[in-house]
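Contributing new records

If you add data, match the layout below exactly. Sequence lines come first and carry their own label; structure lines follow with theirs. Keep one chain per record. Anything else will be rejected by the validation script.
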Amino acid sequence: MNHPEISLRHLVRQPIQPSHGPPPLLILAHGYGSNEQDLIGLADYLDDRLLIVSVRATLSMGGGAYAWFSIVYTPSGIEYDQEEAEAGAKALEKAVDEILAAYEVNRRCVFLGGFSQGAIMSLSVALGQPEKFAGVLVMSGRVPPSSVEKADPQRVRDLSIFAAHGKWDEVIPVDYARHMREALEELPVDLTYREYPMGHQVSAESLADIDAWMRSKLS
């Protein structure tokens, strides 16, 4: 399933329903300790017109587990390596360019999305290069402060963001998501923010809203 010109291991779900012209594209980035097989399972619940590419993160944790950057749990909270996080974002950014070069897609309908750590990476990449994306999907994530600080208000005006978070999230508490909402509301992005009665997960309710949001952008 891997395209030789794409640097990250990945899985592809080809469009099931043809589009009028090249298909829209959704690139998915998994969370900490998972792999590319995780989010490809969401394809069955999303628009059949989408070409979906689920990519594997860069750091091997062993046993089929991967991460975009290392994290350490401390009494004061989660700590992470900033340089690794920046390297992970650059690897995802490079993979996006390679996917766009490898597949004929509708460049006006390119979406980037992720879960947890993959959501952090996706939002960071999209805020840094908003012209490439019609929208970004943030599932159970948070926003790196530096990404908001570096975002150019003029460039992000056409970027749509859907953020879904569990009220009972035990990994990334909902307060982080609410802070993310406040930070993103300072930018002229088209933000849709929703909280759900769930933990650190994707629920049927959140998936239905995600699908409806994406369909509205494709129509």
